[in-house]
Design brief:
Largest sheet of chain A: 6 strands, mixed
Strand content of chain B: over 45%
Number of strands of chain B: 11
Order of helices and strands of chain B: EEEEEEEEEEE
Oligomer: heterodimer
Largest interface: A-B, 21 and 25 residues
Number of helices of chain A: 0
Radius of gyration of chain A: 14 Å
Chain lengths: ~110, ~120
């Protein structure tokens, strides 16, 4: 069974304090790993798709990296507007092609 | 704005009632997915349609059903509603159900409250 574990569950940072969110996964074969940002009461907003170990993608203060067992979402010099829940999802090769979502990391950035 | 639209934004109803949630996918996307999100369960996959046909089922209750119409919009029907059905319901779309473009784009959601 595919599993996705995100840590920490919650993270509080001061503005400008860089940190990383972790997404550990267990799948029979990885087809893709997705990061989403979700604001309270709103739909998940797509951030990145990573396909193979060693791949990295960046967007503003966010950088996502991928290894064979986990992905990190690095947040550099975060701002209060980066406060949100960050969701990770994995798509396994074969099967139904339905992604398995983690429970998310709730990030709060204090000014 | 993801390009996926959902109506209504909010829905308040009573136990035992039936409601219909509507979703229009991004232009050109053939796959539609429905998810339920509650505080204690996270994002749970319900069902997928691809070009009008059901492709995958998740933890969808028998009281729930969905369909995708020729114009590719989809409806999720929830019947015999219970208090525990109160949640956010999201629709997502992707270009295809298999292949390189599997990234799902989510709509703004419908918040359902069953009283």
């Amino acid at each position: 069974e595919d599993q996705v574990t995100q840590s920490p569950e919650a993270l509080r940072l001061q503005e400008g304090e860089s940190s990383s969110l972790n997404c550990s996964y267990t799948v029979s074969g990885l087809r893709g790993l997705f990061w989403y940002r979700q604001d309270p009461g709103k739909g998940p907003e797509f951030l990145f798709t990573l396909y193979s170990a060693g791949e990295e993608k960046e967007k503003e203060r966010l950088k996502a990296t991928l290894t064979k067992k986990e992905s990190f979402l690095h947040i550099t010099a975060p701002k209060p507007e980066d406060s949100a829940t960050y969701l990770c999802a994995v798509l396994a090769a074969g099967g139904s092609y339905i992604p398995t979502f983690g429970r998310g990391t709730s990030l709060i950035v204090h000014p | 704005d993801s390009g996926v639209t959902q109506t209504p934004k909010h829905l308040i109803t009573a136990t035992g009632q039936r409601v219909t949630l509507r979703c229009s996918p991004r232009s050109g996307d053939l796959s539609v997915y429905w998810y339920q999100q509650s505080l204690d369960q996270g994002l749970q996959f319900l069902i997928q349609y691809y070009n009008g046909e059901e492709r995958a089922k998740g933890n969808i209750l028998e009281r729930f059903s969905a369909q995708q119409f020729p114009d590719l919009h989809s409806e999720l029907n929830l019947s015999s509603l219970e208090l525990g059905d109160s949640a956010l319901y999201f629709c997502a779309s992707s270009p295809r159900d298999r292949g390189a473009q599997e990234t799902q784009y989510f709509g703004p959601g419908t918040r359902l409250l069953v009283l």
